Task: structure prediction
Amino acid sequence: MIHRLLPIEQQHAFRWIELMEVAIYETLSNRVVAERLMERLRIGALNVLRICEAHQEP
Result:
């Protein structure tokens, strides 16, 4: 349970999303595919953040 041992914080999740966005749009030429992938990555990152925050609450 890495989220308990090394929890991410909001700024980490947002920075990761920013970096992935740059990598995706530089790599993929198909904009529709790039946008779908970005949306899925955002959802995943925010879900991980939500789980980490939930485990930090007393």
Remarks:
- The mean pLDDT is 85.
- The chain has three helices and no strands.
- Residues 19 and 48 are 17 Å apart (CA to CA).
